[in-house]
Amino acid sequence: MVKENPTLRDCQAFHAWFDEQKGFSHDLPLNMMLLVEEVGEVAKEVRRLVHAGDNQQKQQEARLHLQEELADCLAYIAKLANYTGIDLEQAYVDKMKYNMQRVWTE
Hints:
- By secondary structure, the chain is an all-alpha fold.
- The chain has 4 helices and no strands.
């Protein structure tokens, strides 16, 4: 069911299917809390990467863990979009079009 080069829509479709298969809760506050937990794990891995310095082995280990935690975040974002009826791919395109026209100030 997981495609080799998935779009955001593919990710959302996968998580709709996966949630059904595993019986995962669609509770918004619970899933938001789980996303925040994953974001904290991303922060931890970024810190590990920064502290790895020039140690290539430690950098590689931190990147591997960071990769996993970022994937977890994407999964929860896809799930939250599913639970609220949002087409995440279209939302992203629309927001980036807006951002391209936006004037950024401090």
